[in-house]
Automatic annotation (TrEMBL), chains A, B:
The keyword Kinase applies. Residues 7-327 form the DhaK domain. It comes from Arthrobacter sedimenti. InterPro entries: DhaK_dom, DhaK_L_YcgS, DhaL_dom, DhaL_dom_sf, Dihydroxyacetone_Kinase. Its EC number is 2.7.1.121. Residues 363-565 form the DhaL domain. SMART domains: Dak2. This is Dihydroxyacetone kinase subunit DhaL. One of its GO terms (molecular function) is phosphoenolpyruvate-glycerone phosphotransferase activity.
Length: 573, 573
């Protein structure tokens, strides 16, 4: 049980501050995560990693010479926002391009993906290598769907060492992809973990049982069985991984036995001894093993075994020196400290010129955002309760954080004289960033897309409004990858967009069209009560949601209604 | 809960084997613990540490260049035997003498002390520095009675760095003593830990409460209070330690925030951030801090803060490079591997010449040991049950392990033609070593003392028997430091020795005197039921023992009776 905190809502931020305080020789805090506090050679590829907090030493503990250049650190078990990833990457890069690498989870793919686009758009060449080592999460035929767990380390380490050796982005990317192809993991769990401030564990394993393949956030596993002996457990893990051995595997292998939190060192060592004996008996040569806590899940009771199948070049980079808070190997020459002040400047931009029409519309957009804020405030508690039925109950607080930040950013932009596109870009970025979670990213992208579509024109027509609604729809659908019937906000969004287009095409006024669309959205949101979620990590909870509408669809309907009402007041004035 | 093992009785050994398998570049296994697997310069002082297992990375994880030369590893939470310490020290030393350093616990003091005597007797100059950092375990006026907890690290580190720098034993000892004087720790606990194979935790803390000053094996603390916030906890720890600040303290301080097992990294970092702010606000300068798991107690939930008050030379050795499995700092030149085969030879000795009378008496001693073995086997279960009332229930199994090993060693000595002194020395050493715990050490010392007193004479008289019994008594009293009425085996031993002396003085036969003494011992053992233990670490359990005799006194009475009966059969034949 997680016990040490002042305010559970600030846990991830406070912990990161303390981590930096304890490790100033390695890391410096930037908005969104941490970067090396030491200089990196000009032109070195920056390996930028990250993910949710609560998995220490993944990810911030792996930042340092010979490994990662920076880590974007999300909230507890939640992806960092695109803005966080973007800013950390900007502060990490040294002119050699950026390799983003992280475990394959939908939220991370979404946010890191957006950051990559933005970095590339700015001329910072950025690539992505996903880690997909967990053999329990999908069959070999669908290897690309596998989750990333402790195998993160092999990919980050090889990429970081390749960057340290001065290889270019093409080579670093190639080696990281290869390391991922050579890495397989299998985990078991004995008990779940408890998030700061929560009364109950996030997920559970029945007493006296072991869940095979359960993910590090409680994602479904393969099977449950009674607790085995250490020798039986070693056999289960080794057999499972040898069956899934990559075709290119040779005789040399680096095993990584990873504790998830409350399985302690002596237990890990004891098990490692059995595993080493089995690998040796299988004719393999054990090289540079690791045994300890490398990817944790707070106080989760469980462990995983990773086999990293080496060839000449992978072994070279796996064995290379590294010097980070949590992972040290060999000797690296001491690095000079870099100026931390210079980091604060990354990611700010001047106000761009805009047409009078765009600047006027920006004021209207700000007011509309304030209306959205008001309706979210009114329903914050209800949305939270609705989300608690089938999720972690943070939809109300998340929407609130997002819309509050969006309004604050829009006000600042407006005061600086920004046009519509710039104002909505600032609002969208802050929404995505402060809300946390997938819905924050979707709303942020939607707001940004509306601004981009409307741009800076001399005047605006009904056709522009239709185009803006379509852009809003496309942004959410493209980024979220949900389909109609998945029980998400898309179930309210699609009827909204369809109804609006049709109403405008039929010559309706903006306010009347918006009103009809909002009504369709609200109705569709209510209808999501009949659906079961198509994805969702907490098994027993997902089923509970039947009979209750999706909170994301409900909040979409509420905001649509309020904005339509606001449009009516403008049109009539 | 400790879950991963095959046979709980083999846990510590199996875990140590696995630890070595995972860390061959640093450590090699020797009988009794681990030593560096790399060469140390000839003439370097060997810092030899150790203690019970279950505290990783203390102690085996701290063996390597710039830190310890070897670690003696006892059973779970139990001191290593004198033989283990002796053999590890022999295999660790490089001709510059040995510094033994460990936490101040009665069992460790006893066993390390015996090893020190033996090493010094062999011409390997050996000193001891106890760690006494836990301010909750005794008031400042009785600083020498304080327990050692995470402050172990500062003392070991400074001593190891001083040895690495080539300083001689006087200097290494002086610096270790100084480091201990400059180190203060305070711990808190939220929940106890469970030994491998146990159904219940070794000790508990009430739900929702925090115990301040509770020791790492459940030793009594100072107070209990409801769980505080992180800021309140930081204040409590910092205030407590600043109040106990040594007079010689300056402005520079190295804080060590140590997690005991299930308080995880993010929680530790979060707390560290608050602690650093308080120390800075108090006008102190934080230097080279540590935050992580450095001395654990299996899956215990708790943490401790250590303040190491630096001066110029202490800071120099604290900051110096070290390279061990669990603690790495700076860069040290790579070391050559040493030959592990050569380690196996340490600690064996040839058979010495003995008189025919001594060799004949050795055969009788072997038979008497077999009688003792038989009675222990008969009562093993009863003794275990008796011990479980107020202790950890291992007295039966411990006596069994000890006497089995003693008989096996005596048989081997006898087959090699050894005299009495040598045979009993071998038996005593093995008894102490295999039994584990204090009673094993006491029996081992007693058996050895009897052999030493009887020596290798041309003939033996009743006066020799009386001297032997007195030697047996003195060995146990001197080593165990228990007094009459403390509810220990001494309560049976003293009446036994008194009755025997008196009976021999009165001209009684050996058998009759032994019989009278055995009767007195058995009666006194029964009478211990009326006593309460004077020490004992598990608070609630100690009181439960009232009304039940002490298992150590009972086993002493049983063995005395059986040996007396055996003496009667010899005398009559």
């Amino acid at each position: 049980m997680t016990k040490i905190f002042d305010d559970p809502a600030q846990f991830a931020d406070d912990a990161l501050d303390g981590f930096v305080a304890a490790n100033r020789q390695y890391v410096a805090r930037v908005d969104g995560g941490v970067v090396r506090s030491t200089e990196s050679p000009e032109g070195q590829v920056a390996v930028v990693i990250g993910g949710g907090s609560g998995h220490y030493p993944a990810f911030a503990g792996l930042v340092g010479a010979g490994l990662a250049a920076g880590s974007a650190c999300g909230n507890m078990f939640a992806s960092p926002s695109a803005g966080q990833v973007y800013r950390v990457a900007k502060a990490s890069q040294s002119g050699g391009g950026v390799l983003l690498s992280y475990g394959n989870y939908a939220g991370d793919v979404l946010h890191f993906g957006q950051a990559q686009e933005k970095l590339n758009a700015e001329g910072i060449e950025t690539r992505t290598v996903l880690v997909t080592d967990d053999i329990a999460s999908a069959p070999l035929e669908e290897i690309g769907k596998r989750r990333g767990i402790a195998g993160d380390l092999t990919v980050f380490k090889v990429a970081g060492a390749a960057a340290e050796a001065g290889l270019d982005l093409d080579e670093v990317e190639r080696l990281a992809i290869k390391a991922n192809h050579h890495t397989r993991s299998l985990g078991v769990a004995f008990a779940g973990c408890t998030l700061p401030g929560a009364d109950e564990p996030l997920f559970t394993v029945p007493e006296g049982m072991m869940s095979v393949g359960l993910g590090i956030h409680g994602e479904p596993g393969i099977s449950e069985q009674p607790l085995p002996t250490a020798s039986e457990l070693a056999q289960l893990l080794v057999d499972g991984l040898l069956k899934d051995k990559p075709d290119i595997a040779g005789r040399r292998v680096a095993p990584i036995l990873n504790g998830l939190g409350t399985v302690k060192y002596d237990e890990l060592f004891l098990l490692f001894g059995k595993i080493e004996a089995l690998l040796t008996a299988a004719g393999l040569e054990v090289v540079e093993p690791e045994c300890g806590e490398l990817v944790t899940s707070l106080d989760m009771s469980g462990l995983s075994l990773t086999l990293f199948w080496l060839d000449g070049e992978l072994e070279k980079f796996w064995s290379a020196p590294a010097d980070t808070p949590a992972f040290r190997k060999g000797n690296l020459a001491p690095r000079r400290a870099r100026s931390v002040e210079s980091l604060a400047e990354a990611g700010t931009a001047p106000v761009l010129a805009a047409t009078p029409a765009s600047t006027a519309l920006a004021a209207t957009a700000l007011d509309a955002l304030k209306e959205a804020q008001a309706v979210v405030v009114e329903h914050e508690e209800t949305l939270g309760k609705l989300d608690a039925i089938a999720g972690d109950g943070d939809h109300g607080i998340g929407m609130r954080r997002g819309v509050d930040a969006a309004v604050a950013a829009a006000e600042k932009s407006h005061a600086a004289g920004a046009g519509l596109e710039e104002l909505l870009a600032a609002a969208g970025e802050q929404w995505a960033e402060r809300a946390g979670g997938t819905s924050g990213a979707l709303w942020g992208a939607a707001v940004t897309a509306v601004g981009k579509t409307l741009g800076s024109k001399d005047s605006y027509t009904a056709a522009d409004a239709a185009a803006a609604v379509n852009a809003l729809r496309d942004a959410i659908v493209t980024l979220g990858k949900a389909e109609a019937g998945d029980k998400t906000m898309v179930d309210a969004l699609l009827p909204f967009a369809d109804t609006f287009s049709k109403a405008i095409d039929d010559g309706g006024s903006l306010a009347a069209s918006l009103s009809a669309a909002a009504e369709a959205a609200a109705k569709a949101a209510d209808a999501t009560a009949e659906l079961s979620p198509k994805k969702g990590r907490a098994r027993p909870l997902a089923e509970k949601s039947l009979g209750h509408p999706d909170p994301g669809a409900v909040s979409f309907g509420l905001i649509a209604r309020r904005v339509a009402d606001y449009a009516a007041t403008i049109e009539s004035s």
